[in-house]
Design brief:
Layout (H helix, E strand, L loop, with lengths): L5 H16 L5 H20 L3 H20 L3 H38 L17 H16 L9 H9 L12 H8 L7 H34 L6 H32 L17 H7 L2 H15 L6 H19 L3 H19 L5 H4 L5 H22 L3 H11 L8 H4 L2 H27 L8 H15 L13
Amino acid sequence: MLFNSINFLLFLPIVFAIYWMVNKRSLQLQNILLLASSYFFYAFWDWHFLFLLVFSTVLDYFTGIKMYEAKTEKSKKTWFWLSVLINLGFLGIFKYYNFFANSLAIALEKIGFEASFWTLEVILPVGISFYTFHGLSYVIDIYKNRIQPERNIISYSLFVSYFPLLVAGPIERATHLLPQIKKQRIFNYSLAIQGVKQIIWGLFKKIVIADNCAFFVNQIFENSASHSATELWIGMFLFSFQIYGDFSGYSDIALGTSKLFGIDLLRNFNFPYFSKDIADFWRRWHISLSSWFRDYVYIPLGGSQGSKLFQIRNVFVIFLLSGFWHGANWTFIFWGLIHALLFIPLLVFNKNRNSLHDLSYNFKTYLKIISTFVIVSFAWIFFRADTISEAFNYIFGMFNFNDLTPNYFYKNAKYALLSALCLIAILFLVFIEWKNVIKGNQEIQLSKSTIFIVLFLLFCMGTYRNQISFIYFQF
């Protein structure tokens, strides 16, 4: 079920009303309702893969208990690796098997061997990367004696399957979400109003910003050779806003929806396009994933301890894994490599934490923000392109200045009007977020007049277009 669909518009108020009606009866009944709603939410997309979600949940639930009750370290480790290997095995089969099979076949052909491997003809289960990482963090935390296993299977199942975060995050931790699930929740009117505002802001980002940018981005990227350098530059920047509006919009809707049920989710974005360098960007973009890799991969590898070469190795591992997590394509790995190469100089010269202490905003700061945004936008080309060669061809085309006229946007009135409205919406987004950055707000603060403008733009730019799936559903 999509957040930007009529189905969800009907689903949410029904669940919300019943949820608070049963609140006075029992917490367990409330959690059962949320769990059933979450399974319905997931099954609405494809009920066949619901069994995979349930299997993963039951596996990690019993593994956690078995590890905690293990009499020997060997037994504990056996249960731990059983869970890790099965979880990663399912993720590998559904998400990466075809990639490895095809890559190996191509590699063998290049050295003179003909190869043909069986491939899976199955769609990727939506949200598998997210709920797999939920389960892995839980199992790892028990193995490291950070938490005790959850004995209530309803509570644990809800932690894994909670519908606001099920298909595209944020990636939650048991230490943060489980205590809230186990605690009695009382309706908070002001929190609910905040949630509604955040949902509206998220829909604005998705429907007004992302979907309308996608209208141009798809046509430019799918046939970049036929577009001028100016159009390619515009396409690059529009995709930057598309992916931000799409993913952060989803996160805002997820966080806002969860507030309606009295549950706080981890923040996933912190105004990333106002970052002052690449290190700052990764502290602000997809925070739940960045912190997951930091805590469960980077620090166990040694983190920032040891020699610079040791630290550089760890950075490369993290960024390459992050790229690979996003999808089974060399473009994502190359995208991760680019960010690693951009991060390394900051690490070598001990400047990767400078932005944490630099709270000033002056001309030099603005140059840093603009340059970081441009660099990040260039890297997004590899994220968006189907192949690495297509990405390079796109970049080469950006510097072919034979035709500087963006004819695509002005060849008829429809494109001219839509591009103007899209630009106005982007400028509005930038203005609102910059205002909150300057004030030091941790969350977007929306006035009544701002809400009115957002709703007006949603009506003007969202009612004529069919619902479009979220980009991160494919990850």
